[in-house]
Amino acid sequence: NEIRLGAINRRKKIKRVIIGIIIALSVIGFVLIIYTMSLKNTGFKIEKNGNQYVVCEDTKFFGDGVVEYIPDAEDTDIQMPDTITRWSGIIPKVYKVKYVYASDIQSTGVSISLPRYFEGFKYEIPVNSSAYYSKSGDNVVFENISVSSKNKKYDSRDNCGCLIDSKTDTLIRMSENGFIPDGVKTIQFDGMYDYFKNNRELVINDSIEVVEDYAFGYSRIWNPNGSFYSIDYVDFGSVKKIGANVICCGYISKDTKIVLPKTLESISYYAFNSCSSNDEYASIFYEGSKDDWSSVVKYDYVANAIKYYDDIYLGYPGDSFVSYNFYYYSETEPTEKNVYWHYGEDSKPVIWS
Predict the structure, then answer these.
(1) C-alpha distances in angstroms, 200 versus 162, 233, 258, 283, 323?
(2) pLDDT at residue 279 greater than cutoff 80
(3) d(Cα 271, Cα 267) in Å, to the nearest integer?
(4) Residues 302-345: pLDDT tens digits?
(5) Can you give the pLDDT at residue 223?
(6) Residues 6+ apart with CB under 8 A from 160
C-alpha cells in the first residue's frame, strides 16, 4: 500500500509540475503578445479593399491606431472610410483615418469626402515627426469638398463645398464649386487658392473679419493668348484685418477696383502686390474719410518684429503708393475732384470727377 500511495503521489506531483509549466508558458506567451502589441510600429502600409494606408501612429495594447490614406494618383472621387481594421492573428486592431497623403492627388478636378477623424493633409511617406503637414491641401484645387457630419473639428456646413474649422469658423479651403457660408470669420492662408482662376469678381461676406496672408494664393486667370486677365472687382465686405499679398502677382491691373470697408482696423503695407509697373496700379476705394484712414494700422513683420508705416504700397515692396489710386468715400459731390467716390446705380464705385 505504501508503495502504491507513493507512486500515486509522485504522479500527482509530476502532473502538477506539467500543469505549472503549461500555465507558465501560457503566461509568458500572453505577455510576449501584449509586449509585441505595445511596440510602436509605424511606417508600414496596409492594403484594404484595394486602397492603401500607411500607419503613422500606433497605440499600445488594444488602443486605436492612426493611418494616413494614400489616394490613387488617378482617383478623382476620393471617398475615405472613418476607420479600417487590421487583424493580427485573432486580435483585431482598429485604425482611425486621420490624414490624407496629398502629394499624388491631381492638382485639379478632384472631389474629396473627408472622414470622421480627419485632421489634415501630409506630404511624406513613411510619416514621421518631420513630415510636412497642411490643413488645406496646399496647391490642390478640389472640385468639391465634403466633411463627415461626425467630424468634431471640421465641417462643410450648408453643403458649401469648403473645409471649415468648426471651432474658429475659419475657411481652411474652398473648392471650385464652393461658396463662403454665413458665419465664417476668417479666410486662412491659401483658403481660397485659385479662386480667381474662374472668377473675376468677389464680394466677401459681412461675417468675415480677417483675411490672412496669401488668402487667394498665386493663381491667375489665363486667357487664350497665354497671358492672364486681372481681377475686375473685389469688395472686402466688413473685414477688420487684411494680411500680406492677399491679392498679388498678376491679379492686379489699372482696371482693378478694390473696395476697403470703414470697419478696417489693420492692413499689411503690401496687401496688394501687383508685381507690375506703376501704370498697372489698381484703384482702391475706401469707405471712410481721410481721418479714418489715418487711424488704420499699416504694418509689416521684419525679422520677427512688427514695423509700422504711414501708408500701404503697390507694386514691389518699397514702391510708393500714389495718391491718385486711392479714393475716400463721400455721399455728396465734393468740391475737390478725383479724390472721392460714391456708389453708382450698379452698386459699384464711381469717382467724383
Answers:
(1) 20, 7, 12, 15, 25
(2) no
(3) 7
(4) 767 788 877 777 654 444 444 347 899 999 999 999 899 999 99
(5) 56
(6) 178, 179, 180, 181
Q: Which pTM was predicted?
A: 0.80
Task: Record the cell numbers describing residue 39, joined without a space.
Answer: 511596440
pLDDT in tens, 182-208: 999 999 988 998 788 778 899 999 999
Residue owning grid cell 503549461: 22
Give the C-alpha separation, 276 to 94, whole Å: 55
Burial class for 64, CB neighbours closer than 10 Å (0-12, 13-18, 19+): middle
